[in-house]
């Protein structure tokens, strides 16, 4: 009997052993396309007609483009599963995938990225709050702390950490920042139990904005959360607030952030994600009070290995059992 076909969209960098397990149960094919137009043509050409599942990475978007309605409609009906190697799946329109007949079911990696992403947020909180970046920059320019030295930073102890989005990463961050003596409040679509929120206090969105000394964005990007933080929201925050974003750039209006930084209303920020990656707003680059990291929240051997392994596990389950291990929340009831 022939093996089910799996489409590989993106490289396997670390989890080679797990990939071997997949090759024992599935035949792997790779696209010939080098851009979206070619990929859609390849989908329509019949070359993927027996594909049942695909493995995909973030960078493979350079070949396929985003999985929107147009692309989803071009995929063959045999292709039922899309295993995404990442926590955030904003490159995939989960609703268009669900609406296809039959649905194209999507999985992500639910908890594996929590530690490393929260760790990145800790780094950014401390860096931005303590105002470490100007003198780190001055040191490399041979100017020691810089002249005059930068404004004094602030201790995290006793400050209020506002968490917008209390999922796995928000919760993980809350627990870690307890050690630094921060008091955590949060806002989320739904109020969680005290245990789920690790004891953080639930507040309304406006109260979160008004009370936070540091505001950390930990929510997924979707049409409802795009620019959830913009001019109106900055105006409701304390003067001197610190903003940290390890979620997705477009949840915050970058132009509005730059204006709030320039006016001094926002004291400093720590960003791992940007609105138009890899482009970074000039107003952020020129401002030494911005701690900037080029989307490296999960850039660690251990996490990346586990992310690849988990995603391959989803593909194996799909190819051999016709279901996913960790479907995205929108698709849980569809399989
Ligand atoms: O940004 C990283 C992820 O969503 O996994």
User: Which overall shape is indicated by the principal axes computed on the Cα atoms?
Assistant: elongated
Major β-sheet strand ordering? 8-7-6-9-10-11-12
End-to-end CA span: 25 Å
Write down the secondary-structure element order: EHEHEHHEHEHHEHEEHEHEHEHEH
Number of strands: 12
Nearest-integer average pLDDT: 97
Residue windows where pLDDT falls under 50 for at least 5 positions: none
Radius of gyration: 22 Å
* Strand percentage: 15-25%
Q: In which range does the helix fraction lie?
A: 25-40%
Bound ions, cofactors and other small molecules, one mention each: glyoxylic acid
Count up the helices.
13
SSE-based structural type: alpha/beta
The biggest sheet, with number of strands, parallel, antiparallel or mixed sense and barrel status, is:
7 strands, parallel
Family: Belongs to the D-isomer specific 2-hydroxyacid dehydrogenase family.
Keywords: Oxidoreductase
InterPro entries: D-isomer_2-hydroxyacid_DH, D-isomer_2_OHA_DH_cat_dom, D-isomer_DH_CS, D-isomer_DH_NAD-bd, NAD(P)-bd_dom_sf
Domain D-isomer specific 2-hydroxyacid dehydrogenase NAD-binding: 123-297
Describe the structure.
35% of the residues lie in helices and 15% in strands. Helix 1 packs parallel to helix 13 (301-321) and helix 6 packs across helix 8. The chain has helices at 16-25, 36-45, 61-64, 69-74, 94-99, 114-129, 133-140, 168-178, 205-211, 231-236, 254-262, 282-285, 301-321, and strands at residues 5-9, 27-29, 51-56, 81-84, 105-107, 160-164, 183-187, 201-202, 214-217, 241-245, 266-271, 290-292. The longest helix has 21 residues, at 301-321. With 335 residues, the chain is α/β, with parallel strands linked by helices. It has a seven-stranded parallel beta sheet, sandwiched between helices. A five-stranded parallel beta sheet has the order 2-1-3-4-5. Residues 86-88, 113, 297-298 line the site of glyoxylic acid. Keywords: Oxidoreductase.
């Amino acid at each position: 009997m022939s093996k089910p076909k799996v489409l590989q969209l993106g490289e396997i960098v670390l989890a080679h052993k797990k990939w071997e397990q997949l090759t024992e149960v599935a035949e792997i094919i790779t696209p010939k396309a080098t851009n979206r137009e070619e990929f859609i043509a390849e989908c329509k050409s019949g070359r993927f007609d027996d594909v049942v599942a695909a493995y995909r990475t973030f960078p493979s978007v350079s070949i396929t483009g985003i999985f929107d309605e147009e692309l989803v409609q071009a995929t063959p009906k045999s292709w039922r599963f899309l295993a995404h190697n990442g926590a955030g799946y904003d490159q995939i329109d989960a609703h268009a995938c669900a609406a296809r007949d039959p649905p194209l079911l999507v999985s992500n990696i639910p908890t594996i990225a929590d530690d490393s992403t929260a760790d990145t947020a800790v780094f950014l909180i401390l860096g931005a709050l303590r105002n470490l970046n100007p003198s780190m920059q001055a040191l490399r320019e041979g100017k020691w702390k810089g002249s005059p030295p930068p404004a004094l930073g602030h201790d995290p102890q006793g400050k209020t950490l506002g968490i917008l989005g209390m999922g796995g990463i928000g919760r993980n961050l809350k627990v870690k920042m307890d050690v630094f003596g921060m008091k955590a409040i949060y806002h989320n679509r739904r109020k969680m139990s005290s245990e789920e929120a690790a004891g953080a206090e639930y507040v309304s969105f406006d109260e979160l904005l008004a009370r936070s000394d540091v505001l950390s964005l930990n929510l997924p990007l979707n049409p409802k959360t795009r620019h959830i933080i913009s001019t109106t929201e900055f105006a409701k925050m304390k003067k001197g607030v610190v903003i940290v974003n390890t979620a997705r750039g477009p949840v915050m209006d970058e132009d509005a952030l730059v204006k709030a930084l320039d006016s001094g209303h926002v004291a400093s920020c720590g960003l791992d994600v940007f609105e138009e990656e890899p482009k970074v707003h000039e107003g952020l680059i020129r401002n030494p009070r911005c701690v900037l990291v080029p989307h490296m929240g999960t850039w660690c051997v251990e996490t990346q290995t586990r992310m690849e392994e988990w995603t391959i596990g989803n593909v194996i389950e799909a190819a051999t059992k016709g279901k996913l291990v960790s479907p995205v929340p929108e698709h849980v009831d569809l399989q």
